[in-house]
């Protein structure tokens, strides 16, 4: 279905004012739409004007309709504000205060706090990104330096019987490790 070229473009601005708006356009999307309107001002048909902007003819008719109904403000893309955040700014502050009291906190504990106190759940893949965006960093456990000579002395190499108490080797000791978890970035 071919749309008819019904109705001229309304001249909400003079050509010089349109040129100033075009120069002041902050985004490429806005500049492209204003350029389309300028092409219409100069006498191009909708299909010719929109072809110069690299868009479809139906988009040109939609942009012209928005321009005729609302002028410059009508031509701007309307994203509707987007989806509201799951945690309000006040709840986010309360969450950070809770983490500050318990840090470092494991990911499972963070999920439990979010669920019980704020009734919010995030996908497992997204949670680390969300936590980093609000100022938390993940602190991995500290690596323990293992003395290889001590391990070699502990293991009885010539004995064919299994070594007793293998769970007590120095490399299995966890006493010197720091706790891993999420903490507020410094």
From TrEMBL:
Pfam family, one: HTH_23
Classification via InterPro entries: Homeodomain-like_sf
Span list, region Disordered: 159-186
Biased composition (Basic and acidic residues): 159-171
Protein known as: Transposase
Organism, as annotated: Halorubrum ezzemoulense
